[in-house]
Specification:
This protein is an alpha/beta fold. The chain is built from 17 helices and seven strands.
Length: 333
């Protein structure tokens, strides 16, 4: 079954008791999982009836207890087992999958590889729920997929630009979608994306731009952030301190606003921040890595470094590279 049809059924409220999502392509698995989390219940029901566990930390008995528990003040429970490929006791869930609860939606998010189809749990999940195998898009079909993805958000893309995008990123759907969404932020709806747009906004140095620095900081990945700063230092035309500070200031203030929103669903955040729902989803994920106290500190730090970059309050001549390294180190720690 195509992932779009699965998501269509979910949006229309037709849920399965079990979703066993597995395969080499994580993009489609995450898309289905996100759709279930968004549509399975109302925001106010989630505190009591939504449980998200991760394979490395999940315990079989505790997981089964959650699956068999009754919903509180709601129609159903939602139990999501993310990174299920790290959960070594999947076989212990066979008995549950043979007779799943009528009031629980159980999502098994098993990424990067295919689960053994000979296992009994696969047969039980197929009988009592939905088995979805997420396969990599064949290289020769990737261009058509990119064209379709671009069209779905209101743009077109030339063949040359499409190939440049694929050559720069490869067969990584998450990254392709991420780069397309970045373009949609800066280009007017209906624009025909060409190779110049790709070169100027993505280009061969796709890992070394302000967007990727922001992403590295969002994940608190100091090593990658410092690597990008080193690139900026040796390639002054790539960006400058003023642009970096402005982008990071916007990013951290958006995260701060998310923390104080009463409704933190993707659509509500998108509407409040006036950003695309995809960007809202990325910001929501990043907000979980920074508490409000750290965010307030980071906003203050950026204000200080903005002044320093303009020569105010700095002691002696400090290069932009050193200043940026110092700033990045403090923002992450």
């Amino acid at each position: 079954m195509d992932h779009k049809l699965v998501i269509k059924n979910i949006k229309e409220g037709r849920f399965e008791k079990i979703y066993f999502l597995h395969g080499e392509e994580p993009y489609f698995i995450d898309q289905i999982t996100d759709a279930i989390v968004e549509h399975a219940m109302e925001e106010h029901e989630r505190d009591f009836n939504q449980v998200i566990l991760y394979g490395k930390e999940a315990e079989p008995l505790s997981l089964i207890s959650e699956l068999k528990g009754y919903p509180m003040m709601g129609q159903r429970k939602l139990v999501v087992l993310k990174e299920a490929q790290e959960f070594k006791q999947l076989d212990q869930l066979e008995s549950y999958c043979d007779a799943p609860s009528d009031t629980t939606i159980f999502v098994i998010n098993y990424k990067y590889k295919t689960y053994d189809s000979r296992k009994k749990i696969i047969k039980s999940a197929t009988k009592n729920g939905l088995l979805f195998k997420s396969e990599k898009i064949k290289d020769y079909l990737l261009s058509d997929w990119v064209q379709s993805q671009v069209k779905s958000i209101g743009y077109t893309i030339s063949s040359k630009a499409c190939m440049l995008l694929i050559e720069s990123i490869g067969n990584d759907l998450n990254r392709i979608v991420n780069e397309i969404e970045k373009l949609s932020i800066i280009l007017e709806k209906g624009t025909a994306i060409n190779d110049v747009h790709i070169e100027e906004n993505i280009g061969i140095s796709k890992d070394y731009n302000v967007f990727e620095l922001t992403n590295a900081l969002a994940q608190r990945d100091l090593l990658k952030a410092l690597k990008i700063v080193d690139y900026f230092e040796h390639n002054p035309k790539a960006t400058d301190m003023v642009v970096v500070v402005a982008n990071l200031f916007k990013f951290f203030t958006q995260l701060m606003r998310i923390h104080f929103l009463p409704n933190k669903t993707k659509d509500a955040v998108a509407n409040s921040l006036k950003v695309h729902p995809y960007v809202a989803g990325e910001l929501i994920n990043a907000s979980r890595n920074f508490n409000p106290k750290i965010l307030a500190r980071n906003v203050e730090l950026l204000y200080d470094y903005d002044l320093k970059s303009k020569g105010v309050g700095s002691t002696g001549a400090v290069g932009q590279g050193d200043l940026m390294r110092e700033m990045v180190f403090q923002l992450v720690n």
